[in-house]
Write a structure and sequence with these properties.
single chain; six-stranded mixed β-sheet
């Protein structure tokens, strides 16, 4: 297959998994290429996500890599043959690629778990809240760029609001609920929207009160997305260079442990709803 013009998170992940399988056997790229009758450049392109791979070739590689996990191989094959053009593709060339990659990962997730300390989670934000965030973070951003960012953020909600919603759990710190990114009106509307999402069962929300003892997780913000099989789970964390997509099992294990610790420090869903309701009454 010819090299792809655009690298997507899903294709890059597929290539990374094939590289892991090859390296686990000690096989060199040129040896894998020989198995398929191609040159080593094509193997490199497949493993970097720059080139696709057919289902037949993927299964041949998996067999030579001694991968006997049929569910895993089938999940990789589905990734390789998926030609879905998601709604996020409408924003290619308009928004930075990371926006599209986040939406793609969320779309294919079997579950979503998120921890947010400083802002309301993107999947729960109102239009005005999202607009205030983007306008503040990138001062002077023209409307031609600001509007698509806000629109894209709101459209991400389809993953938890659609006909087949993805289970979504989030832990939000009280700080994020109290900070007024704009004004009182926007803050109140945002709290009411969170309550609305809870009542419609689109989200399971837990809150960490500021007076909770033993919570040292100020840097705990993260998203953890479930894959079709556990090996294809993905973690997302903010990094100096942008959003980092995590696929190494030791790091994923750390994120799972972190979520459990943060969840333990939070109120249960019923108490959290009551907490948010009280905050809205205070405004």
């Amino acid at each position: 297959m010819p090299p792809k013009r655009h690298l997507t998170a899903r294709r890059v992940r597929l290539g990374a998994e094939l590289r892991k399988l090859r390296e686990a056997t000690g096989m060199k790229g040129r040896e894998a290429a020989a198995l398929l009758g191609v040159d080593s450049v094509q193997i490199s392109q497949i493993e970097s996500g720059a080139s696709g791979v057919s289902a037949e070739r993927l299964r041949r590689l998996a067999a030579h890599y001694a991968c006997t996990d049929e569910a895993f191989v089938e999940a990789l094959t589905a990734m390789a043959t998926d030609r879905t053009q998601g709604w996020w593709e409408e924003y290619r060339g308009v928004l930075p690629p990371v926006f599209l990659n986040v939406a793609e990962v969320e779309h294919h997730a079997t579950f979503l778990r998120e921890v947010v300390i400083t802002h309301v989670p993107g999947l729960l934000q109102t239009t005005d809240y999202a607009r205030a965030i983007y306008a503040y973070m990138v001062p002077g951003l023209p409307l031609s760029e600001l509007d698509p960012r806000v629109e894209h953020r709101l459209r991400r909600r389809t993953v938890i609001e659609g006909d087949n919603p993805t289970p979504y759990e989030t832990v939000i710190h009280e700080f994020a609920l109290r900070v007024r990114v704009s004004d009182r009106k926007v803050a109140l509307a945002q709290l009411r929207e969170i309550l609305n999402q809870i009542d419609q069962e689109h989200a399971t929300v837990r809150v960490i009160p500021t007076d909770r003892d033993g919570f040292a997780g100020a840097g705990a913000s993260m998203m953890y997305t479930g894959g079709p099989v556990a090996q294809l789970d993905t973690g997302l964390r903010d990094a100096p260079t942008g959003t980092a997509f995590i696929d190494a099992e030791p790091q994923l294990k750390q994120l799972r442990t972190l979520f459990r610790k943060v969840e333990k420090a939070s109120l249960d869903p019923v108490a959290s709803r009551d907490f948010i309701h009280r905050l809205s009454k205070e405004l």
